[in-house]
Amino acid sequence: MSTKFFTNENDNTLLSKIEGIFKHRNIHFFDALVGYFRASGYFRIRPFVEKAAEIRILVGINIDNLVYEANKRGLLFIEDPAKSRDDFFAELKKNIQEAEYDKDVEAGMLQLIEDLVTEKIKIKVHPKQNLHAKIYIFREQEKHDHGYGSVITGSSNLTDNGLERNFEFNVELRENTDIDFATETFNKLWNESVEVGKEFVDKLKKETYLNDEFTPFEVYMKFLIEYFGRSIDFDPNSIQDLPQGFKKLSYQVDAVADGYSKMMKHHGFFLSDVVGLGKTIVATLIAKKFFYSNGFPSYLSKTLIVCPPALKENWEDTLSKFGLHNYKIVTSGSLHKVNKHHDYDLIVVDEAHKFRSDSAEMYFHLQNICKSHTRKKLANDTYEQKRVMLISATPLNNKPEDIANLVYLFQDAKNSTLEVGNLQHFFRGQIDAYKKLKAETDIQKVSAGVKGIYEKIRVKVIEPLTVRRTRTDLSENEEYAKDLKEQGVIFPAVNKPEKIFYQLDEYLDSLYDKTILYLSHPTKGLSYNRYQAIKYLKPHKKSKYQKADMISTQLAFIMKTLLVKRIDSSFYAFKQSLNRFSAATNAMVTMFDNDRIYIAPNYGVSDYINEGREEELITILTDLAETDPTIEICTADDFEPGFITGLKNDKVLLDELVQDWANVTQDPKLEVFIDYLKNKLFDKAINKDEKLVVFSESKETTAYLEAELQKANFNKVLVVDSKNRKDKFPFVKANFDANIPLTEQKDDYNIVISTEVLAEGVNMHRANIIVNYDTPWNSTKLMQRIGRVNRIGSKANNIHIFNFFPTAKVNSDIELEKKAIMKLQAFHSAMGEDSQIYSPDEVTESFGLFDKTVNEEKDEKLRILLELRKFKKDNPDLFKQIKNMPTRARVGRKSPVLKGATITFIRNEKRDAFLLVKENGDIDELTFLQAEKEYYAKITEKAIPLNEQHHTQVKEAISLFANKMEEEKSKERKIDTTQGPNEKKALSFLDALTNMQIANPEERELMQNAKAAIRLGKFQQLQRDVNKLAKAIKVAPLKPANLLDEVIKLLNKYPLQVVEDDTMQMLQPIFNIKEFKPEIIISESFDN
């Protein structure tokens, strides 16, 4: 069928029509009237239309928008020729910036510019009429009656897609009357239009990436400006109304801006400045900024602060001083009491690392609060999500799964806002790699493997979500250091820990080593069976206790750990713990001898047995047995044979140790401590203010020290533990806090001895000496302790740390230290993987990222940002000029090392990539710091032409970037097919229930929402709870109606009402690589 219409199908395209017309006719005039014009479109027709002597293109503007904007302001629309031309120019610039990164396409765009300059082509813009029509007029120079041209009209714009890709509807007309009418109309519109002048054409090349005059230094600075974005702008006025006595510190101003930005982008972030830099103040300022930015005054945000009980008073004091409105403080253990989750808009969690276990009840409550929506309704009838601030100085000093659990408080496991869309898949790989390393015996392989795992987690997850400053950052970066100096803020240097050796005589040394052996050796030592009774019950009794083996093993490990820590703390505390353990073991042996064993974890069975009150115990337990399911009265036959054997062996070993330690009366550690107190620790050369802080993990040790120091005439000693903290805290503040007014400071106490209750959130920086009476088993704990005295407001120049080490009586200092380290290693082995004993010499199998030293890491990225900020301040005009460079800026450079290579910085809304494409085609993915080293250029360096492979290499980099994005999207698309076994079970169970006829629409909707939440990984415990219920009904089946009630009751524990399943939205077609348009492509090519 012959027709004048064509639709771009079957090669019958507008492009082929234009080619044919110029091929078969001698066209002199070519006019085009279009709504949209693309430089790439002109490039496609240029080889054909160049035969024309005169080319005119008339472009319409979107007048509808202009009329709408004018009406909105109550004005009549009046055409503005200058604005029309500017808008067209801006659109053309944008078109060039977003065109396919291709050498031929680029040549076509340069040809357009040249044609405009030589007036081979003229372009005008119509300022006052919507030009929806698309007309292409082809005319010979002389008009004649045999058809002197053609007119094509229809839907195709002069764009790449309009010419041949899109389905269009066009028609070709060849009658002279049609040609005349079209030409006459075109000329009328042409005369009403405004010309795109030569000055605009010159700017077209200069202001797009086609500009070949950029220098390496300009491209380097452009790279930094685009990477850091808004972080460059330092706004001291972003923090206002500080309470009296508080200083506006520039590093805190930056932390507020950075933290707020990350929180709004990702729904939450980690505030991880090291201890002592004022995280509470920064968090309060961010909360205050959020309150006034989140719809105030028509909407009043509410903030929930979650903190340990010991920090509640400090939070109340800070929030009151800073005037934060509408908040509630709740302690970590009271989250179950929080009602009306929707009332809160911002959740601030202090000491957030305490929530790293997703199986803990308090994690369940916190995640439910964080994942419930707010009261704030959005324009699309949904509700605003909460924002979450996690405060922890050590977010990476945890296992990979612990870090994941913290992130899941504000991110969905399978639908994150990060570059890694499927966090569950990402963390699974890191967790598996971590577990494999634990079986590795080569320490160097372990170290390298751990570093690799945590580097991935840091770059992909932690870095985009974390604000972190260290004292090193503050002292080594000029901007911060100058600000601190001008405001009189001192951060003391933390000296290398000093060792205090206490020597054991021959008997004590031998007993010490024997004790460690008995406490920890797997075959020669204690079995701790006293705490593993339910593990050894025969099946008919054991079935009553869920996870009996796991609970028993954990209890045994805890008891072993406690005894090992106690011998390190003080001989006095160890003897107390040893005697209690021995008594409990003897009590259980007695029960076996009487063939009546009481298992009652909630009651002090051992005390009743040892005090001969067995009949009283029987009466109590018999009365309670009906209401307390954990109570069990057993006979010896109810236990597996190995249990009593291990128990009796423990009795022998414990009786021996109790007897041996009863003979010990000396305390060399205490003697050395008192000697140090008298001769060194109060020496004004190191302790100007004569204040001292002593830490011990054991309450019995702190009480013992108090009594013994009084005997030695040290009478100004304040002892604090968990029971008396609230009463003693005012005395701690008055005598040790440098931040309170001088008129309120006292000197009633010069020594404070405390358990870990004062290791967090407390100022004691009138002191600058820390004594760790027992070993700080964990580097995090050590840093927390040091942070009590190393804080804003400290007046000392140095912090001194003293650690005690046991050693044998030997002749030389070298042997003394060697023996001490051997004992430390014995402790370490006894403690297992949870031990990170701090010693400057010890090599430990640490599974954390940050080095276990007192020295804090330096943030190179922060250094670069502050240097860029200084450049902006010193060179405002040049900075602005570089900032306005196109986001596809590129340059050629000399480099014998990178000859033939191209480096690219590519960014879209989710991802940054730094890719080095080598001459041989290999591509390396770099970190920002690695890329920065390659981009770095001095201001004097000259540019050279781009290398021959530049366009090919950039395209390869873009292709890799796009493919990685597509891989990530593909993982998200496959949510339904990549469920783990537990998720599949839960979904299957809910599917069956959803189809039950007795379920009403609301119940079905709730179950659908639960399934969506499981697919997205919204709640860590949801599928576990569903599977637990499914397992329970297999044992004790329920009627359908009762089962449905139980399921609904379970699901109502979770905020599921507005869960949206994004899986349908994710099922989008794979994008065309040619149409993939990153926001930024900044590149450099290297040659000789």
Describe this structure in words.
The chain is built from 39 helices and 28 strands. Helix 35 (981-994) runs antiparallel to helix 36 (1001-1016). Mean pLDDT is 82; it is low at 63-78, 830-855, 972-977 and 1059-1073. Strand 10 (303-307), helix 12 and strand 11 form a beta-alpha-beta unit. The two termini are 62 Å apart. The strands form 5 sheets. The protein has an 8-stranded mixed sheet with strand order 1-7-6-5-2-3-4-8, with helices on both faces. Strands 15, 16, 19, 20, 21, 22 and 23 form a 7-stranded parallel sheet that branches. By secondary structure, the protein is α/β, with parallel strands linked by helices.
What structural keywords apply?
about 1100 residues; elongated; 39 helices; about 15% strand; alpha/beta; eight-stranded mixed sheet; seven-stranded parallel sheet; about 45% helix; 28 strands
Topology (SSEs and partners):
Elements lengths: L4 E2 L7 H11 L2 E8 L4 H11 L4 E6 L3 H10 L8 H18 L4 H15 L3 E5 L8 E7 L8 E6 L5 H6 L4 E4 L2 H17 L1 E2 L2 H9 L9 H13 L21 H17 L1 E4 L7 H15 L9 E5 L4 H11 L4 E5 L14 E5 L10 H11 L15 E5 L8 H8 L15 H16 L4 H23 E2 L3 H6 L1 H9 L6 E2 L3 E7 L1 H15 L18 H4 L5 H22 L1 H23 L3 E3 L5 H6 L3 H11 L7 E3 L6 H22 L5 H12 L12 E4 L3 H13 L5 E4 L4 H12 L14 E4 L14 E4 L6 H9 L10 E11 L4 H19 L28 H15 L1 H8 L6 E5 L7 E6 L4 E6 L5 E4 L1 H8 L14 H24 L7 H14 L6 H16 L5 H14 L4 H12 L11 H4 L13 E8 L1
Parallel strand pairs: 2-3, 3-4, 9-13, 9-14, 10-11, 10-12, 12-13, 15-23, 16-23, 19-21, 19-22, 20-21, 22-23, 24-28
Antiparallel strand pairs: 1-7, 2-5, 4-8, 5-6, 6-7, 17-18, 25-26, 25-28, 26-27
